[in-house]
Specification:
By secondary structure, this protein is α/β, with parallel strands linked by helices. It folds into three domains: 34-188, 3-Layer(aba) Sandwich (Rossmann fold), CATH 3.40.50.12780; 209-409, ANL, N-terminal domain (Rossmann fold, 3-Layer(aba) Sandwich); 417-489, 2-Layer Sandwich (GMP Synthetase, Chain A, domain 3), CATH 3.30.300. The protein has helices spanning 8-14, 20-33, 37-47, 63-79, 97-108, 122-130, 157-164, 209-219, 236-247, 260-270, 279-286, 291-294, 310-320, 341-346, 423-431, 467-474; strands at residues 52-55, 60-62, 88-92, 112-115, 136-139, 153-156, 185-189, 197-201, 226-229, 251-254, 274-277, 300-303, 324-330, 334-339, 354-355, 359-364, 371-378, 389-398, 404-409, 414-416, 419-421, 436-446, 450-459, 484-489. Helix 4 (63-79) crosses helix 5 (97-108).
Length: 503
């Protein structure tokens, strides 16, 4: 546990971020590499040279090796693939050593990097690649059976891995171009709906301070040594975890795709202490035999990306102690609400927490119950939206103590029989049933009521429910308009982010 005497300054000093030597190393790194992820990596390599930085089940690199190989990769991309500042490339790849090295290498070259969603269908990917001009397309060959015809250069992550990790190429080192600042890293949000939207972020010395302060002061992540990242880098949560972990010199284990049994094996074998996770992943973990025993090393689980059911909070705290934190944010604004384990345990309803330092939140268009749309102003929002008020499109309530509670989405609300219904509320009630592992509620047109709610339910392992028994259980907890008119029992597939596809 963090010491009560720890202040933000003392923590930052201990991490060398504001110490005299640290400031000097930062200055040298920024002069040499520009404001880029390579500068961050150079800083970490100076203070933690022999500490293990990255593992992915195939290889492991120290911080010094990580920095050197990122430099080698920048050289390769500059000399062999002729990448230059202000060019644009796209990457379709799962978490790996080479993908991690690509981010600082491309940032150092001043190249705009687009991280594509690995859940894209072939037609979606083809349309995307045909509609844009990239100088280079980098991809995992197992993600594409047949590469759609494109006019620009391509290379697989396997090829780059062999060239960089195994040193299968020889090159004459050239002076890399000087850059003032790395170009944007672009992710595509909205995978659950299939309508992908661009979110752009540029390396910054100061804009990342609010979330960093929250992670240090409220969560105390600086105390732990190892972190497992199973969330994809094209998801803001996964990418932010990587950057913060590198800055603090953590040992980072990369999992290409979440799989509950394999994830538990990694946690146990690698003695993982910190794991970012989304509720659906956590639910899958608790359905796996022997989960508690395999998670003994965990000291901090940071949950985000979706609503966190109270039943999941209680189960985790009962089995592992109060180690579960809840983060709330958007890809566009970053995270800005935080609930501690104490906060989550103190209320009957799961809370989103309170606003972190450096952001402002307000509720607009409130109803008689003081519920309305949540707006946020954040200094670390995506490019073009920094310090501007943004509508999150989430409907929330704020109690007298300043805690926020989720009520639904403005873009999912439907009218059923003249009543406003939030499918998210139906899902949360379903998930509170002890035999339900996953649930999805959605509206279906109906001539009598305009719309009605249908539900899909996945039962926990070795459990079963009848529709009639479940409906009887639901009736005291839902209004007539919210009651599902039909329930289908099935396995609910997850995206790489842990979210469910929209119906």
């Amino acid at each position: 546990m963090k010491r009560k005497t720890d202040t933000i300054f003392s923590i930052l000093y201990r991490l060398h971020i504001v110490s005299p030597k640290g400031v000097w190393v930062w200055a040298k790194s920024l002069v040499a590499e520009g404001i880029s992820l390579m500068a961050l990596l150079r800083f970490a390599a100076h203070f933690y040279p022999q500490r293990c930085a990255l593992k992915d089940g195939k290889a492991a690199l120290t911080y010094q090796e990580t920095y050197q190989k990122a430099q080698d990769l920048a050289q390769l991309l500059y000399t062999q693939y002729h990448l230059r500042p202000n060019m644009r490339i796209a990457i379709l790849g799962r978490n790996s050593l080479i993908l991690t090295l690509l981010l600082p290498a491309l940032s150092r070259l001043g190249v705009q990097t687009v991280l594509l969603n690995t859940d894209m269908g072939r037609e979606q990917l083809s349309n995307h690649l045909r509609g844009r001009q990239y100088q280079l397309f980098i991809y995992d060959d197992d993600l594409i059976e047949n590469l759609p015809p494109i006019s620009y250069q391509t290379v697989t992550t396997t090829e780059l891995h062999h060239l960089i990790i195994y040193r299968d190429y020889q090159y004459k080192r050239k002076r890399l171009p000087r850059i003032g600042r790395g170009k944007e890293i672009i992710i595509h949000t909205g995978g659950s709906s299939g309508n992908y939207q661009r979110v752009e972020r540029r390396p910054s010395v100061t804009s990342f301070l609010p979330p960093l302060v929250a992670l240090l002061r409220e969560i105390g992540v600086y105390q732990y040594e190892s972190v497992l990242i199973a969330l994809p880098f094209y998801h803001g949560f996964g990418l932010a975890t990587l950057i913060v972990s590198l800055l603090m010199g953590k040992e980072i284990y990369l999992q290409g795709r979440f799989d509950a049994p394999k994830t538990l094996e990694i946690i146990q074998h690698e003695h993982i202490e910190v794991m970012p996770i989304v509720p659906a992943m956590l639910s899958r973990i608790w359905q796996t035999k022997g989960a508690k025993e395999m998670m003994k090393s965990l000291k901090c689980m940071i949950c985000g990306g979706d609503s966190l059911p109270k039943s999941l909070i209680n189960l985790t705290h009962n089995q592992l102690g109060e180690i579960l934190f809840n983060l709330y944010g958007t890809s566009e604004a970053g995270f800005f609400l935080l609930a501690t384990p104490h906060d989550l345990a103190s209320f009957d309803e799961p809370t989103l927490g309170k606003a972190i330092w450096g952001v402002r939140c307000k509720i607009k268009k409130t109803d008689k119950e003081n519920t309305g749309a949540l707006w946020v102003q954040s200094s670390w929002a995506m490019t073009g939206r920094k310090n501007k008020w943004q509508n999150t499109k989430d409907i929330v309530y704020q109690n007298a103590e300043g805690y926020f509670y989720h009520r639904g989405r403005t873009d999912r609300m439907v009218v059923c029989g003249g009543e406003n219904v939030h499918p998210e509320h139906v899902e949360q009630v379903l998930l509170s049933h002890p035999l339900i592992a996953a649930a999805r509620a959605f509206s279906v047109p109906n001539p009598a009521f305009g719309n009605v709610i249908h539900a899909e339910v996945e039962c926990a392992h070795n459990s079963s429910l009848s529709q009639s028994a479940l409906l009887n259980w639901l009736r005291p907890q839902l209004s007539r308009a919210e009651m599902p008119h039909a329930i289908t029992f099935k396995t609910i597939d997850m995206l790489s982010t842990g979210k469910q596809k929209a119906h």
